[in-house]
Amino acid sequence: MLDLDGIFEAYVDDLYRYLLSLSNNHHTAEDLVQEAFYRAYLQLLEDNISNIKPWLFKVAYHAFIDFTKKHNRLIITNEVHNRIIVKTTEIDLIEKEGFAALMNDIHSLKETEMHVLVLCDLHQLSLKDAAEILQLNLNTLKSHLSRGRKKVVERVKERRMQDG
User: From residue 95, how far is each of 41, 84, 99, 102, 107 by CA, in Å?
Assistant: First the structure.
């Protein structure tokens, strides 16, 4: 059995960022991190998990899906702009606004495409691990990733044209 405290310390920030990117709500993300680690604790008592990071992301993903079903609504909203903490330098603000706009673009995708982009591009999980987490065929995941990336690039191009 693995040391849960060590696992928590190693992956709590990654899971929090992942769940925050799905829920766009700080409190929901914190609750889901707790739920994911609770589920992980129960499972680790019974099984020996070898590849812990993708497995934890899968547990977190399922906790998010269960939460979403329970609340019978999709909780991905456009609150990203409200979470930008204004720093003193103009460059920091521009970078944060750019990231917030990118996150809005990602959140405007179909749900599966959004999940694939968040796992593969933001959290840099392998295609195989992301496919396992989302319970998708590898080729299906690649299609969603390709379509999602193209849509995001198009939206970024459109925004740049509007900003002129």
Answer: 38, 10, 6, 10, 18
